[in-house]
């Protein structure tokens, strides 16, 4: 507020950003109030802009929350879409396999072997008998009284394993057992043999040679120099003097077929299966069943229900009315068109039905998933278990993408969008040299282009995003796609919630741009208002100074007049 001084008749008016002091000899007007009112009138425009910015920031935060929740829904759906990585998914749970072991008698099957199944491995059962484990060849030298004393042996030792690369180790008379061990180990990565020293008793030490790999016999040679015999590694006939463990291959029978490998890990006996052998159990059959990993699929389905219900709770919180019948203060997206669109889209997708090849229909209810009274989802676990164990192919059809083709020569390579057409006949032309020369649908050859053996849907057509591989001859192929609930919903939500390109990202980007521009305008208004405050303060200061001068002149005239009297 303006402060008026009554103690001096010559104090000049002073300026400031928020106050103006007037002397008692001036006007006595509250200039600060006048200035503040004028400045605030100009600042009111900035206040209105700042209010809009704050509202936009709240909307941005709400949109980002919605985006995060929808992406969680899509994360839960991804593996249920029956797509490979090349067709746009991070994983395909329907192709993931697990192995179930049984049998083994008194020995637990898991203590005998484990079986790992690659994605897409053929389902089925196998009978396995682990007849023999692969072992590492191990031989010992003669014992010596010291590991550090010179052995008095000299010569060149050639050392390796069967089928490997042998190395030459020079031994001198002054070398100890430790020296020989260290010399061997310096070349072990090449020779495939590792040396160690075992303390047998307080005055007996033994050099041990062990093959690095199972099933490979150690080879020794000293060109007849007597070094091997002197060390006690070979006998007089050139045989191993102390063979501690013989080199053996692993032997298993798979459905009665004998399989022998040098390793206890066998990855090439059955396509897609890896056997890790832990113990031999001759005569005892281990049953192995390779099946779809139902536990992972169930976990993904229940995870989807939880993710959807979290989104549903968010949507309801932004549709809440306060006690006055108006939108709640927390309902930032009340009546928001995008939220309404997403809510309806998700609800419609979850209520859709999928027709099977035999004319039947499938829905979420087929999995024991239904809507509660508040439109959240609930799961009947018993019904879900029955669906998964009873007909996993029906679950795949209900949820995922499936392609049918009248030719086994046509395969799906990539499919990263929703097709405009799901059933069509593809007319394919192959040149005399076997290369693809064209592909058309209904006589239109502008829908696809060919590259090598790939048939690629052109952008702007109903087939954009579709890439097929064809290895056959000229002909027509009937193609059909069935898009299940999970794949359809994922594709739709991805268009809405994708981090950089979805509808929400575009709206948030526009709001950010709007806020940037409004912040610039608000700051400009505030800067100009403060400039105006400075000019107005200076103006009133000049008025006050003039008023003081006039008042001083008036007092002087009155004084002169009284003096003249």
UniProtKB/TrEMBL annotation:
Compartments where located: Secreted; Bacterial flagellum
Alphabetical UniProt keywords: Bacterial flagellum, Cell projection, Cilium, Coiled coil, Flagellum, Secreted
Pfam family, one: FliD_C
Flagellar hook-associated protein 2 C-terminal domain location: 247-546
Domain of life from the UniProt record: Bacteria
Residue stretches making up the Flagellar hook-associated protein 2 N-terminal domain: 27-137
Main function: Required for morphogenesis and for the elongation of the flagellar filament by facilitating polymerization of the flagellin monomers at the tip of growing filament. Forms a capping structure, which prevents flagellin subunits (transported through the central channel of the flagellum) from leaking out without polymerization at the distal end.
Quaternary structure and partners: Homopentamer.
Recorded family membership: Belongs to the FliD family.
Protein's name according to its UniProt entry: Flagellar hook-associated protein 2
Gene name of this polypeptide: fliD
């Amino acid at each position: 507020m303006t402060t008026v001084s009554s103690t001096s008749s010559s104090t000049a008016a002073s300026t400031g950003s928020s106050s103006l002091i007037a002397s008692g000899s001036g006007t006595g007007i509250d200039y600060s109030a006048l200035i503040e009112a004028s400045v605030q009138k100009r600042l009111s425009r900035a206040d209105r802009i700042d209010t809009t910015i704050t509202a936009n920031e709240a909307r941005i935060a709400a949109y980002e929350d919605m985006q995060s929740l929808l992406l969680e829904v899509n994360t839960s759906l991804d593996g249920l879409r029956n797509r490979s990585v090349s067709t746009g998914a991070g994983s395909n749970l329907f192709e993931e396999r697990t192995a179930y072991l049984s049998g083994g008698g008194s020995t637990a099957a898991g203590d005998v072997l484990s079986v790992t199944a690659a994605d897409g491995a053929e389902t089925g059962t196998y009978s396995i008998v682990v007849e023999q484990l692969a072992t590492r060849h191990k031989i010992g030298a003669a014992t010596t009284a010291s590991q550090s004393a010179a052995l008095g042996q000299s010569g060149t030792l050639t050392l390796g394993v069967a089928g490997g690369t042998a190395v030459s180790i020079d031994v001198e008379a002054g070398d100890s057992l430790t020296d020989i061990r260290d010399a061997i180990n310096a070349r072990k990565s090449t020779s495939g043999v590792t040396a160690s020293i075992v303390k047998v008793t307080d005055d007996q030490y033994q050099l041990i040679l062990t093959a690095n790999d199972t099933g490979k016999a150690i080879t020794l040679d000293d060109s007849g120099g007597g070094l091997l015999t002197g060390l006690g590694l070979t006998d007089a006939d050139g045989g191993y003097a102390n063979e501690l463990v013989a080199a053996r291959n692993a032997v298993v029978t798979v459905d009665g077929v004998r399989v022998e490998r040098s390793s206890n890990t066998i990855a090439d006996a059955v396509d897609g299966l890896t056997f890790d052998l832990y113990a031999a159990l001759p005569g005892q059959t281990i049953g192995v069943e390779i099946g779809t990993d139902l536990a992972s699929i169930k976990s993904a389905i229940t995870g989807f229900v939880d993710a959807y219900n979290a989104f549903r709770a968010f949507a309801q919180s932004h549709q809440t009315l306060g006690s006055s019948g108006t939108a709640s203060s927390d309902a930032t997206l009340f009546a928001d068109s995008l939220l309404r669109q997403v809510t309806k889209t998700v609800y419609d997708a979850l209520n859709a039905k999928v027709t099977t090849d035999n004319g039947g229909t499938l829905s979420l209810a087929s999995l024991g998933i239904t809507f509660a009274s508040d439109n959240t989802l609930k799961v009947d676990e018993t019904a879900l278990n029955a669906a998964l164990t009873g007909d996993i192919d029906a679950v795949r059809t209900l949820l995922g993408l499936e392609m049918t083709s009248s030719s086994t020569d046509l395969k799906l390579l990539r499919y990263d969008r929703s097709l405009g057409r799901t059933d069509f006949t593809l007319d394919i032309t192959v040149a005399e040299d076997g290369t693809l020369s064209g592909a058309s649908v209904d006589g239109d050859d502008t829908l696809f282009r060919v590259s090598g053996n790939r048939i690629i849907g052109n952008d702007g057509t109903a087939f954009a995003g579709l890439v097929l591989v064809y290895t056959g001859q000229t002909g027509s192929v009937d193609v059909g796609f069935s898009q299940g609930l999970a794949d359809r919903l994922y594709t739709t939500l991805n268009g809405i919630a994708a981090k950089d390109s979805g509808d929400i990202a575009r709206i948030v980007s526009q709001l950010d741009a709007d806020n940037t521009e409004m912040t610039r305008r608000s700051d400009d208004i505030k800067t100009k208002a403060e400039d105006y405050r400075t000019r107005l303060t200076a103006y009133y200061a000049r008025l006050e100074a003039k008023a003081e001068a006039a008042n001083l002149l008036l007092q002087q005239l009155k004084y002169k007049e009284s003096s003249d009297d």
